[in-house]
Every structure is written in C-alpha cells, then in structure tokens.
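It is worth pausing here to work through a concrete case rather than discussing structure prediction in the abstract. The textbook approach is simple: state the sequence, then state the predicted structure, then interpret. We follow exactly that order.
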Amino acid sequence: MTTIHREATEWCDIWLRSADRNGLPRLLCIGDSITRGYYPAVEKGLEGRFACARLATSRFASDPVYHQELALVLGQYRFAVIHFNNGLHGWDFSEDDYREGMLGLVELLRRHQPGARLVCATSTPIRLPGDSERFDPRNQRVVVRNRIASGIMAVERIPLDDLFPLALARPDWFAGDGIHYNETGCAGLAAAVCASVSAVG
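Step two, the predicted structure:
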C-alpha cells in the first residue's frame, strides 16, 4: 500500500460555471495551480460552446483525498469532456506511485463519467526562480512522469495534450518563480487546451 505524504499546505479549488443551467455540454479541467492560472482564458475561449468547470488541487494522483475531491465534483454533473493533469505535486512519492496513481485516476474518471471524452495534459517544465533559461533539478522528474503518463494514455487510447514542449520553448511565458505563468503564458497554454478540447468535443 502506498504511503501517503502530505505537503505543508494542502488546498482544493472548485469552480463550476453555469451550475444552474444545462444548455451547453460541460467541460471539466482537472489540475493544479497551473490549470487554475490558464483556466479563465479557457473559459473565455470556449464561451458559448461549453459550460466550463475546474477542479484545481495540490493532491497527488494516488492520494485517497484526491479521489474524494474528484468524486465530489464528478457526482454532480455529466461532463462531455474532461481535460486532466497531475504531476507537479507529491515530490515525496515515487514514480511507481505516480504510475499507480495515474492508472487509478483513469479508472476513476471512466467509472464516474463513462460517457465523457478524456484528454490528458502533460505537466509543464520547472525552471529556476529568477532564471527562466535554467531548469530546476525536479524538471527531470517531470520528464519521467510525463513519459509514464504518455505511455498509459497510449495504452488507454486517451488523447494527449502535450503542454510540456510548448512551454519548454517559451521561457518568456514564465513568472518569476519558475513554475507559474505570466498573462502571455496562461493565454498560450489556454489556446492549446481549447484546441485539444475542441478536437474531441
């Protein structure tokens, strides 16, 4: 059984647009603070086509609390498309834990939302704070985790929204902390997300 590691601060942010209406197909974006950053531009880019929702959280893929958070949202509505990512938290978990967690995540999404079309996004790079031309040592783990996720999605026949190389080529998109994105970066990531959602939805 996987040992559960907690971060110093754990958080969850749930946002449901048009919660009182059912006129449009629903999109759920699942991720972390990166997702929370680009989500407003996704919502704007898909306005009139999808009723958008997000679940942004610090929880790692194999954390039982993560599954509880997901089940809470997935049980409320039928989502036409679910765009999901996990990988930039849980550094105390191993890559074997990550593989197990991502397999469990796919199973959970399909169990709760059997009619939804799924899209998995790769995790974005981590650069050094204040030096966007250099990479944090954890970035190598991001590469490994993305490789694991990509392999799982290939077997499961889930489309991949490969955000990593997109952000890798644009150091100017990064905020000063080396993890998050400025307004231009959020817009660029959101455009890719909108395109991947449109391709399946």
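Step three, interpretation. The first strand starts at residue 12 and ends at 16. The domain at 12-200 is CATH 3.40.50.1110 (Rossmann fold).
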